[in-house]
Amino acid sequence: MPTLEDEIQKAGGPLQLLRSGRSGAYVFPVKPEFTNWRDEQESWRSTAALMDLSLHMPDLIVEGPDVFRLLEHLGANSFRNFGPMKAKQLIAVGHDGNMVGDAILFCLGEQLVRIVGRPPALNWVQFHAETGDWNVTVRKDERFVLNPNREYYRLQLQGPTAGEIFEKVNGGPMPEIKFFHMGKFRIGKYETTALNHRMSGFPGLEFFGPYEELQGVRETLLEAGAEFGITQIGGRAYASVATESGWIANTLPAVYSQPEMKPFREWQNARSFEGTLAIAGSFVSERIEDYYVTPWDLGYTHIAKFDHDFIGREALEARIDEPHRRKAWVEWNRDDVARIFASMYNEGADRFKYLEMPFATYTATQFDRVDKDGAHVGNMNLTTYSSNTRSWISLGSLDDEAQVGDQVELTWGEPAGSVDSPFYERHTQTTVRATVIARPFSETTEGSGNRQAAAVGVA
To answer: Is the peptide bond before 358 cis (omega within 30 degrees of 0)?
Structure first.
């Protein structure tokens, strides 16, 4: 099979490959709506939201005497005090200090870790495990669309009434599970293992067990939670969680250009996640490096620790004193939003890029340009209508020149108005007035979104 490197050379370069429009928006393989996406969005802040994480994320199982040494070699974060029944976010950067990806490490034994998350970080670990001198074995528990016989189900219950539901199904008080630790409890007749990763005063746990028990676990929770307003979250609402919570979920893995990454590109096949990604959005550069992001851009500044040697350490240390972007949100001007929707009445291509509700990001890796006073100050990666804020919000990275309260301008739509791709309708690019805002919710009332979003503050 052709490799990723073969595809890049065939296309004439990484940007030519990534701009060929081969993939549209990622669709979560969950029923789109169980009730309606607006009530489902509001449930994680008002009652209790039940989310199914079993279907869209792969697991990489790494086992053997060198598992911790391998992860330390690849992770920019510290591994002190990491061990069984603990979890940790893996921050993986390349030799240039740019992000390859992030994922969550579940340590289930002295020499056993399951890595769960978006594919780039998992693929990076697998590459090193298979090609390096490490005494480990690896195997993939692929996501459901590729593997209907999964090993584990993975659910999350989050919201103000989640604690009452947990106590009811456990048959009594819950065990104390420290932040980013794991513990066991019961859901009726089923035993499950839970991770505590909440970032707010609202209770919430992610929990997992044998996949064949998924239906029984879900039915037990729904029956017990009915009096507490439990709500199943469909794919439409789930797609919008990251924008509210603050996890920039669709970064471009920095593997396409550096000479040091060529062995990975030659190992990875052309039909892989990295091989089928597409770049879209209004930001255009002729340097693929301008699409890469650093840990600073994603809000991981305090997670990277220079207490061990890892790939990219030297590059990160050399960049500490450089200006950095930071994770930021902007809120769209409501009149400009109305103007975009009104343009659907216009003939031909005299309309603006459609705003899909609630999640308007239309490709797997999107960069929407943001300007302040005519100068480029950053890009937005995720755009969502939030029923919780009753507004359109975008999440991305901005320079220090754009502070909370500042007025900025976001360019919406493809640069040429349309591209030769069935995923993008013919349209005209437009601009949207926006305001830089603080985190959409206060720390005292903040609900959590998906697992990775909640992990952003973990050292």
So the answer is: yes
Question: In terms of pLDDT, which residue wins out, 292 or 80?
Answer: 292
Share of the chain above pLDDT 70, in %: 93
Q: At what angle do helices 67-74 and 119-131 cross, to 10 degrees?
A: 120
- The answer to whether residues 241 and 454 touch, using CB atoms and an 8 Å cutoff, is no
Edge-to-edge strand list for the sheet holding 137-141: 86-93, 99-109, 112-117, 59-63, 137-141
For 220-231, the pLDDT digits (tens) are: 999 999 999 999
CA torsion through residues 30, 34, 35, 40, sign: negative
Contact present, 211 and 150 (Cβ < 8 Å): yes
- Are 197 and 87 in contact by the 8 Å Cβ rule? The answer is yes
Which DSSP string do the residues of 347-415 spell out, in sequence order?
Answer: -TT-SBPP--SSB---SSEE-EEEEETTEEEEEEEEEEEETTTTEEEEEEEE-TTS-TT-EEEEEES-T
Tokens 């600073």 belong to which residue? 296
Q: Give the count of beta carbons closer than 10 Å to the beta carbon of residue 5.
A: 19
As given in the structure block, the two tokens for residue 125 are: 């670990």
Q: Does position 187 have pLDDT exceeding 50, yes or no?
A: yes
| pTM score, whole prediction | 0.93
The reported pLDDT for the residue numbered 458 is 29
Task: Give the mean model confidence (pLDDT) for residues 1-9.
Answer: 96
Strand partners, 394: 330, 383
**Reduced to 3 states, what is the DSSP secondary structure of residue 346?**
coil
Supply the Cα-derived Rg of the chain in whole angstroms.
Answer: 22
Give me the mean pLDDT over the 33-55 stretch.
Answer: 95
φ/ψ region of 188 (left if φ > 0, alpha if ψ in -120 to 50, else beta) reads left
Q: Kindly state the tokens that stand for 362.
A: 């239309």
Task: Give which of 216, 206, 200 is closest to 156, Cα–Cα.
Answer: 206
Task: Quickly count: other Cβ atoms within 10 Å of residue 6's Cβ.
Answer: 15
**Structure confidence at residue 304 (pLDDT):** 77
